[in-house]
Amino acid sequence: MRIVDLAIIAAYLAGVTWFGARFKQSQRSLKDYFLGGRTAPWWAIALSIVSAETSTLTIIGTPPLAYAGSYVFLQVVFGYLLARLVISTIFLPRYFERQIFTAYELMQRRFGPHVRKVASGIFLITRALAEGVRVFAISIVISIILKTGGMASIAVIMALTLFYTFEGGMTAVIWTDVVQMGMYVVGASVSLFVLAGKIPGGFSHALDLASAAGKLQVFDFHWSWTKPYTIWAGLIGGCFLTTASHGTDQLVVQRLLSARNQSQSRAALFSSWIVIFVQFAMFLTIGMLLWVYRSGAAAPAQPDRLYPAFIWESLPIGVAGLAMAAIIAAAMANLSAALNSLASATVVDFYEPLSRTLRLPAHYVKVARISTVFWGVVLGAIALFASQWGSVLESGLRIASVTLGILLGLFLLGVLTKKPGESAAIAGVLTGLTAMLYVKFATNIPFTWWVMIGSGTTFGAGYLASFVIPGGRQNKEGGTT
């Protein structure tokens, strides 16, 4: 009875891999491989941004939040909008002053090459760990479909995604993101419609039951340092989190840099928020409907399996295959984005500056492809250990939040001040890292506040250190000597 569903999934996997690999011929330089030649329209970049920040974590991790609680997670999404205002005002103008490939080149101009490598190194470590969780999330879905173990599940998707990312670079990433974004929105919409139809009384009756149980609550105005989802944690913490992830993290900055100009980059950034808000509301609604459908039963021991298990076991033949293919689409979109951004930071921030002689563009493209394969192996290895880290959605956010604040504090120090030099900046980073390790392991402060704490500590310590450590004079690249 599963042959039709499996055929739909197999056809999708083969089709998107073929589609992405078709862009191989256009990859002649690093500009082509890492920025898509800066030819993609703003709307495609917007959808690619959504795909990059969504991942399987959103699809399988968001419904359990509403199943066990309510819609309060949406408060964080309002903070995402504030962050886009900050990014478009502070960061985008500086990113488009010159032709750069990574966000961390900006740090070299301001502080020097050592700070650039520190910032890029933080990105590589953090992104690899966070993406390892996302790869593990893929294995949850595949194991439900194929009844296979973690290793086989990870290998299937990793191999296919790695192939078209290796061949087509950023152009393949952006355009497959567009296809995959449409795929998982359609899949979620269909599963939501079918799920509502399975509830006696339909969607309106489900809303009545959920409302009576307090599951439609969106805003919590209580002040608390220990509750992760309040309006204050959402607006302030969500703003800091997204300013860091979209303004300093190469995963998203790379997409902003792929736009034809600053105005198109800004349009992509703001329009992506609308899509993000709608899709989070959709997946929270799916979680609420699952709670009604299961008559308020307690969440299973592995809540991340709740939504994909319902799809595979309860949806009609064909519809289940479409919905599962949609989840896999989101997984592949995020994974390809991560592989390309990790490779770009590796080649542009480390390999290229260390090259003693200037090589032909084809050489750097070859190194970029080798780097893509290397990071694919690393992410697969990390995914094997991620099953011990709890909820996939919150695990991914916690990992990123530990160091994103340090990066944001460093970038704000470089953009908003002139006095601190390279040594002061590194002192700020070390202080910020110490503070975040203390917050994570010695306090009960939830992850929604971590980026604010990390950025404030890094910025403050770096600025104060500049009064003790001389900044040096500015060189032509903006660094200190």
Record the SSE blueprint.
Layout: H1 3-21, H2 30-35, H3 42-68, H4 74-95, H5 105-110, H6 113-146, H7 150-197, H8 202-212, H9 231-247, H10 250-257, H11 262-293, H12 306-314, H13 319-354, H14 361-383, H15 392-416, H16 422-442, H17 450-465
Helix pairs in contact: 1-7, 1-13, 3-6, 3-7, 3-10, 3-11, 3-13, 3-15, 4-9, 4-11, 6-7, 6-13, 6-14, 6-15, 7-11, 7-13, 7-14, 8-11, 9-15, 9-17, 10-13, 12-13, 13-14, 15-16, 15-17, 16-17
Description:
It contains 17 helices and no strands. The chain has helices at 3-21, 30-35, 42-68, 74-95, 105-110, 113-146, 150-197, 202-212, 231-247, 250-257, 262-293, 306-314, 319-354, 361-383, 392-416, 422-442, 450-465. Helix 8 crosses helix 11 and helix 9 crosses helix 15 (392-416). Helices cover 75% and strands 0% of the residues. By secondary structure, the chain is mainly α. Mean pLDDT is 83; it is low at 472-481. The chain has a single domain (3-390), classed as Sodium/glucose cotransporter (Up-down Bundle).
Shape annotation: globular
Which regions have little confidence, pLDDT < 50, spanning 5+ residues? 472-481
The CATH topology assignment is Sodium/glucose cotransporter
Overall tally of domains? 1
Distance between the termini: 69 Å
User: What is the quaternary state of this protein?
Assistant: single chain
CATH architecture: Up-down Bundle
User: Biggest sheet: strands, sense, closure?
Assistant: none
Helix content: over 70%
Mean pLDDT: 83
* SSE succession: HHHHHHHHHHHHHHHHH
Q: Percent of residues in beta strands?
A: under 5%
CATH superfamily: Sodium/glucose cotransporter
Backbone structural class: mainly alpha
Total strands: the figure is 0
Rg to the nearest angstrom? 22 Å
CATH class: Mainly Alpha
